[in-house]
Description:
- It is built from five helices and no strands.
- The chain has one domain: Orthogonal Bundle (434 Repressor (Amino-terminal Domain)), CATH 1.10.260.
- It is about 65% helix and about 0% strand.
- The protein has helices spanning about 5-15, 20-30, 35-40, 50-55, 60-65.
- It has about 70 residues and is mainly alpha-helical.
Amino acid sequence: MITLEQIQARLAETIKQSGLSQTAIAKQIGVCQQAVSAYVKGTKMPALDTFAKLCVVLDLDANEILCVK
């Protein structure tokens, strides 16, 4: 079973590897840069609608982050 910490780590790594700045990501998903920073630090998880937007911006399959097969 996957844990919240594992999901946070996968999301953080994906954001870091995206090549996009936190500010650019924040603008595209409609949150402040500090929120994206919190996602990377693992101190906050995005709301489901924000998570969905992140998946679009990062060209990411949500199943990869959530370990759903």
